[in-house]
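2024-03-11 09:14:02 INFO receiving multi-entity request
2024-03-11 09:14:02 INFO entity count = two
2024-03-11 09:14:03 INFO echoing inputs for audit
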Amino acid sequence: MAVAATHVGGGIADHVHPEPQGFIRRYVFSIDHKIIGIQYLITGFIFLVLAGLLAEVIRTQLMNANGGFVSNNTYNEVYSIHGSAMVWLVVIPLMTGAFGNFVMPLQLGARDVAFPWLNMISFWMFPVAGLMLFSSFLMGAPVAGWTEYPPMSLQGEAGTSMWCAAIFLVGISSTLTGMNFMVTILKMRAPGMTLTRMPLFVWAQLATAPLSMVATTALAGALAALFMERQFGVPFFDPTKGGSPLLWQHMFWFYSHPAVYIMILPAFGMISEILPTFARKPIFGYKMIAFSSVTIALAGFMVWAHHMFTSGLAPFMQLPFMLLTFVIAVPTGVKIFSWITTLWGGKIHFTSAMLFAIGFVVLFALGGITGIFLASVPTDLHLHGTYFVVAHFHYVLVGGSLMGIFAGFYYWFPKMSGRMMNEALGKWHFWLFVAGFNGTFLPMHWLGFEGMPRRVAVYDPQFQFWNRVESVSSYVMTFAILLFFVNILVSLRRGKKAGPNPWKARTLEWQIPSPPHYYNFKHVPTVYGLPYDFSEPLPYRGLDDELNDAPAPVPAGAH
Amino acid sequence: MAVASLPNQHVEHAEGGVDRFYEETRDLRLTGFLFFLFSDVVLFSAFIFAYLYLRNSGQSWPPPGIARLDVAFAAWNSVVLFGSGATMHYALENWKHGNFNKYAGFLIATIVLGIAFLGGQAYEYTHLYFVDKISWAGSGIFGASFFTLTGMHGFHVAVGVVYLTVLLLQSVHGVYTKEKYFGLTAGTLYWHFVDIIWVVLFSIFYLI
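2024-03-11 09:21:47 INFO inference complete, emitting structure
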């Protein structure tokens, strides 16, 4: 304490706990947000590989109009688990669990999240839930798609109940993470960091956390009801017993539409960090980007029924949902234009991270535009349940979220590992991925317009040519992701030392060593302004000591 | 926005009290606990929405062949639960004023009233099952929504009774002081939360 008191404005180390030395406490049941973030990252990538292989089963089956690679029932199981795993085990945990955990407390100038133990518990629910989800293959996996609409999901085999339990568990994990992040961001910012001085990635996490907290809990209710109906015969959704299949759709989409924003808002935040750094130019419209994230999050709760235009929704309900959905395009457009204006006149460095960020803006915008087609009732009546929908959500989830994850990974890998990624491999990864991605999903737009239905194992032979183009392209995309993993392994061993700030970025996490010390900051900095004014000195005080080799003093009384 | 601009009032804490940003303070715990309660409200809301949706999709309520619920009994049982909310309030107030004996008395009264409420609910369930032949899975959407929601609530009361008992034992063993008693605040908030949920459930099942 005596040491602490001498350092004015430093707020030293009273609650820096000594770093645990045993392997288990340090790397397995760690309570350090950085380790937990990396655990999320590794686990999420493992599930990305598994769910990606399922995608290749789908594409291989669709090489031929009459299928033949797997049985029709297996095909149904495969796309159901592919979708569920990609949404709940890959994109959401990577966006919030991995990048949120690793980056957000560093950018806040905090020493950890608000509840480190809770954070560890949330993480460990996630791999368990993942194993449960994949184990459903052993008992007859769900066959009604990732949305599991009754009555089909009521007739599914035992694996469907396992699916409910798995998604319930991973949902609890994400709810707890959301609470943890809310408290962290609201209560643990460094002195001087007002809400309007927070980096935009933190703003994105602040908009995402309440979605994880509220929407995921509502989904938990729906899953519990489905589980009870399947296991104990308690009627909620079965129309023959007075239940309503539409009720499930309401409850499911009340969660799953906000979940779309859980999957994309953190990526918006990453892009808002990466673009100014590599354009060497302040972000354009800081407040507009920050507030548009919040607007999107709020409006996201009022549009769920646009997924149900063909389900027998009353016509007077359709119009407000259609208009509200159009309204969401406005804050999204604000972001896109702010990013383009940030690039305008900048001195752009085309690193791999920047390529993925620019690719994100282009491909996400395409996915957003097709979203407007689907939000409009007359067009949706034609397009609902076709490959057009598949094209739309893969453009926003792969071209958007996954590209964002890659951009963020290339950007923060040096901070996590202390080494640089290989840029040549990174560029191969980018170009092959973009080529393969567009080859896979672009033809789906016109296939959908021509009426090719989604979720079927065989299809009309007139669609075979474009399906073959898609399948071959999807192998290119898989090869690109393979290059990505090779790049990670090579760079971890042979990568150039990164140093504290290889990108000359200005947010707080780049002002400390890479990888950061266990205690993050020796002295808690004071923040005087936004991190994006590239021509100005850094808006922080109290960071002078951070790059010295001497460890942070730990007071004798610390436990 | 520029570097020269003055830092805001947060920095005033910087000289003496920065550490409070990095400690798991009462403030952090309270905020986190309120967020937890909020998401629990959402969980109840999901089922309440389901109940109202299903109720409005049929022609009559209660559905044909199902008797109306016994409002009078449930009303008396509600009085028991709301009374426990009052005793919980006085328990916390007495703790704040250092009257340990009164605190313990009111807390024990709360626990007893909570158990009494659960007993009343158990009586109501058995009556419905054996006399009115209404069950969870066998009585259509009525049984499903009624037993699921009131059962969820009863589960929360049961958890609360256990939690309050633990708090009682902890305070007897000196875990809490007159200044640091977050566990008691959390217990009180939780118990009031359970009360408020019951106000909603009582209204939508028995009154409308």
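2024-03-11 09:21:48 INFO post-check: Chain B has a mean pLDDT of 87.
2024-03-11 09:21:48 INFO post-check: The helical segments of chain B are 12-17, 26-57, 71-96, 100-130, 140-172, 182-207.
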